[in-house]
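Repro:
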Amino acid sequence: MKKYLSLIPFVALIALIATCVSAFGTDALDGATQVSLLIASAICVFVGFLMRRVEWEALEREMTDKIASCMPSIIILLLIGAIGGTWMLSGIVPTMIYYGVQVLRPEWFLVSSSLFCALVSLMVGSSWTTVATIGVALMGIGRAHGFDDGWVAGSIITGAYFGDKLSPLSDTTVLASSVSGTPLFTHIRYMMKTTIPTFCVSLLIFTVAGLMMDVSGSGEMTFLNELEQTFMISPWLLLVPILTGVMIARRWPAMVVLFLAALMAAVVAVVWQPALIAQISEAGWYEGTMKVIYGPTSIQTGALALDQLVRTHGMAGMMPTVWLIICAQVFGGVVTATGVLRDVMQMLLHFVRGTASLVASTALTGIFCNIALSDQFLSIILTSSMFKDVYRDRGYESRLLSRTCEDGATVTSVLVPWNTCGLVQSTVLGVATLAYLPYCFFNLLSPLTSIMVAASGRIQPVEKQK
């Protein structure tokens, strides 16, 4: 009976989050969700004391460790906020949008943006970097063409996570292969069997949707004229994203790349857009530039759509997300320290019978960890650690475990509103997680594809293969 008590914190969290979304809508992440996570954490602490008298010091230590583990992500998130402000007000993103609108035709935009993001993410190995740079520009192009934000964000995220998943430079790809004991390129080659078909299906959906949608792009010329009147548009501004790409290709640390990218854009803003900097702050270029980096800014262009596009939030705009990440890590810490998470995972093992149920249990555990722990790295590590012995004892290769972890944990993290990935991407793109979720076809289909391949009977234990 006691083991069923472990379900109480998760049921409570789901109920609290559902209530918040119902009551606050898209504003749920402004505070209500954070409070819900803390309440669910308190419930978990009570359950932990009731079940096994966990020491408070152990709980505190686990929460502290969890929060400390996500500090690099928080710093990167703040730097992404700085890039959002500087790349917009310097005219870099408007320039990318200006030329992109003329190149990417409306009917092919969705599939093209997904392919473009896939290529960039494959080269740089980071979905976060892809979305924060190219993705922001593509959002502007999509809006100029008249597409719904959810469709555009879905195509961007689909491509970014496909490339991230198959890139040997990706931290999640390296992590999944290493914790399962699978050679990196063996892991990548095996993932292709589920990843490429799923991506092709997603591209087909975007192609058909783009051809069927009534997006004539009739307002393109007006939008382009408004951009020219507001910003100094020049191909020279594209040197900043090009140099950023070079730094990424040379595998410089993410924090260094993002800091230098923001710094270069800030210098460009002072040189190329002095009128906009003066509009932000009459005190001078220094104060104006600093505000672009750290705080919310808005400029009056005379066009409502463009005003909304160029409105930025800087590092300060990331603070609600940082708050939410910390609260999510508190919940992750208490469910781990109390043993509640371990009990729930052990319940799942009772349903494992054949290959299909094993793969399904692994994928669902990864999804569950994304919801419960709010971090894809923890989800990959815990899922792999839990099932590693099971796969070995039943004669399955480690590459099946590593692939299933990625199909279940890596790509679904962006679909959870309070997960670090979901928080970052929704904040950067300016689109609520639940708004783009239905259109992230690659992310939604990947776990199902993995289960379907296992159910086809093509995967057998090593002994049976011999």
